[in-house]
Amino acid sequence: MDSPYSRELTIAFSALQNAARLSQSIISAQDKGAIEKADLSPVTVADFAVQALLIATFQDAFPGDRFVGEEDASGLRDNEALLERVWELLQRVGGDGATALPATRELMCDLIDEAGASSPGGDGSGRTWVFDPIDGTKTYVRGELYAINIGLLVDGKQTLGAVGCPNMPMDAAAPLCNADIDPSGEGCIVYAVKGHGAFIRKLRGSADDAPPRRLPRQQAPDALRFVTCVGIVDSALAGVHEAVAARL
Q1: Domains by residue range for the chain, with CATH
Q2: Catalytic residue positions?
């Protein structure tokens, strides 16, 4: 893709590869360190570790940007055993030229908290990265499909998006079920920059090793398939998906 955000995409691809490797390293484990948040949704050691990895990486690459994440570190600060599990998991990812790691446990918690307490902002807010470290924690816990989401807002408007799907096949076709795991184990990344189209590539490998495929533009809104959570406690956003569909 020829766009003014090529460096951002390079950082995103590397971060997603490392985040996928981190999360996949315990996906078969019976105990993923899941705890229940106040909204009754689960969070695992992978959620915390991936968020810390993403924030450390993007803060190192773009120190002037803002960051928003789904999790905060209160559950770690109150549970030393859980904190150690997250720290140990994070150490499995070796830092490379594009990936940074927090230097201490305290810094790890501070990074998670910094993003957890932020909000995207609107006009004049500049660049804000938004992360969902494990999108689909319930299915992740079951060893099914999940995603790692990265978005860039510029003055409150989404400009770039990159979604890592560690166990979804690149040639997946609808309808796709949670249990439709990629038999090759390669996974994929779906990404887009505003005004430059949407693409899909293999999760692993470099851009040269994994050339992207441009996704066709969807011309008929009625052909789009919308999905939403089964229960209100899963999203607490009743009506939002319907409103988006109506605007499209």
Answers
A1: 5-218 (3.30.540.10)
A2: 47, 137
